[in-house]
């Protein structure tokens, strides 16, 4: 059986991308990263992809008149790469309804909180400010609302006394790096069934 191709979209540091690259290398994840796409030319993720000899594409959002025009370009890149699954790994853009419908159940996202708590760009910071004792990591399918689609995997992460955003994020990242490759593998092996908001992993 051919190894399924995935496209990974990143805007920043790319530590989750790195975890996925390493899971592919060690065969914990049976996949091929066919392209890494970024909306940020300065994303460290791009350097990580190049170091791993993975094709990269930077799409500059300023070149597009609308969100959908950007997403159509993203879609062309995904199609050309042969990717069957789109993995958002710190991709800080809201996708258009058009894109989400086109790739229904084929887009994954990871979020640094236990959704539906603390959605948005600063999940860890918001959890810390709120004073929760437990936060966590969520991997979910992407739907038309932000940080909202059916949950695939979640894992709690304790908030310690004296945590800063940095120390909490470091603890969250360690869990993310373990959870995301596992979730991707389960989706690729067809072990996920979705019924409404509920996703079941067999
Ligand atoms: C990750 O912590 C991910 O959960 C978060 O961005 C970070 C990217 O880190 N995503 C969101 O907040 C989505 N709402 P990375 O670039 O080092 O993988």
What's the average pLDDT?
96
Indicate the radius of gyration in whole angstroms.
16 Å
The CATH homologous superfamily of the largest domain is called Formyl transferase, N-terminal domain
Q: For the largest sheet, list the strands in their spatial order.
A: 3-2-1-4-5-6-7
Order of secondary-structure elements = EHEHEHEHEHEEHEE
Can you describe this structure in just a few lines?
The protein is built from six helices and nine strands.
Question: What this model shows, in words?
Answer:
The chain is an alpha/beta fold. It folds into 2 domains: 1-103, Rossmann fold (3-Layer(aba) Sandwich); 110-202, Rossmann fold (3-Layer(aba) Sandwich). It contains 6 helices and 9 strands, in the order βαβαβαβαβαββαββ. The protein has helices at 15-25, 44-51, 67-81, 97-102, 123-130, 165-188; strands at residues 5-10, 32-38, 56-58, 85-88, 107-111, 134-141, 151-158, 192-195, 198-201. Strands 3-2-1-4-5-6-7 form a 7-stranded mixed β-sheet, sandwiched between helices. Strands 8-9 form a two-stranded antiparallel sheet. Strand 1, helix 1 (15-25) and strand 2 form a beta-alpha-beta unit. The longest helix has 24 residues, at 165-188. It is globular and about 50 Å long. 40% of the residues are buried. The structure holds glycinamide ribonucleotide. Glycinamide ribonucleotide is lined by residues 10, 12-16, 45, 89-90, 110-112, 121, 123, 147, 176. Glycinamide ribonucleotide (GAR) binds at residues 10, 12-16, 45, 89-90, 110-112, 121, 123, 147, 176.
């Amino acid at each position: 059986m051919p190894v399924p191709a995935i496209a990974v979209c990143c805007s920043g540091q790319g530590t989750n991308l790195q975890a996925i690259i390493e899971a592919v290398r060690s065969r914990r994840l049976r996949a091929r990263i066919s392209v890494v796409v970024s909306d940020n030319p300065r994303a460290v993720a791009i350097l990580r992809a190049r170091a791993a000899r993975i094709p990269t594409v930077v799409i500059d959002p300023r070149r597009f008149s609308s969100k959908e025009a950007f997403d159509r370009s993203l879609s062309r890149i995904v199609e050309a790469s042969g990717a069957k699954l789109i993995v958002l790994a710190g991709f800080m853009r809201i996708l258009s309804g058009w894109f989400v419908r086109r790739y229904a159940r084929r887009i994954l996202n990871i979020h640094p909180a236990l959704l539906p708590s603390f959605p948005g760009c600063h999940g860890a910071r918001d959890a810390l400010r709120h004073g929760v004792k437990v936060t966590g990591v969520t991997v979910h399918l992407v739907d038309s609302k932000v940080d909202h689609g059916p949950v695939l995997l979640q894992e709690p992460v304790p908030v310690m006394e004296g945590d800063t955003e940095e120390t909490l994020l470091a603890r969250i990242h360690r869990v993310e790096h373990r959870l995301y490759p596992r979730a991707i593998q389960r989706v690729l092996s067809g072990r996920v069934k979705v019924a409404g908001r509920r996703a079941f992993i067999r």
